[in-house]
Here is the input.
Amino acid sequence: MSEIVEIRNASVGYSDDVVLRNINLSIVDQDYIGVIGPNGGGKTTLVKLILGLLQPMQGEVIYHSNNKENLIGYLPQVSQTDRSFPITVSEVVLSGLMSSKGGHGNFNRSDKLRAGEILEMMGIIHLKNKSIGELSGGQMQRAFLGRAIISEPRLLILDEPNTFVDNKFEHDLYELLRQLNHKMAIMMVSHDVGTITSYVKTIACVNRNLHYHPSNIITQSQLTAYNCPIQLITHGDVPHTVLGEHHHHDHKHD
Here is the structure.
């Protein structure tokens, strides 16, 4: 399988605060990586590094593509969305093609047909003319997931996708991601280790460093060895987690 993004000996942070130090990670086609770690450990900083929103203080990030604009699709947390912004569900999905249009929203018939297909896949075609402010949390996630995948990226990054959604949508979301993984690599940041280990293929433990675990099966002793203070707890047959906090000079860069 060919590489999509490669991080080599990278350190990254904000001004003089190094959040992640000397990290290495290679993401290849059809990877499905679960990113876990304590609050403040650097998970969001890792995402920003891969998205190109932060530049490494040392080391490098290599993108193996001639078309970097459509290389990565990104689904942010619903809480980061401005629900008052005057845009319809259909327009949200179409906006995922903006980079390939040079930043101009001149969408042709083929683009609109593609958006319709995505809305059908997401199960929200009936909401296409609704404004995003009228959507539930789960519907909002579907709309923005459609936006993230309409350009058919090689890598899809999701930041806490199960936040603010009900159990049924969460199950449907994971099943949809399983199908999408046949076409693209996925990196998912989540606190819900017990759930995501049923779906991901590998795990990256992030806590100021990055420890890559080449399996979706991880033990408490391995988490401890990776300096990832997450406690695995089982209630009946359902695993749960308790996440610690990372305190470092009173800064928190999750």
User: Anything to note?
Assistant: The mean pLDDT is 85.
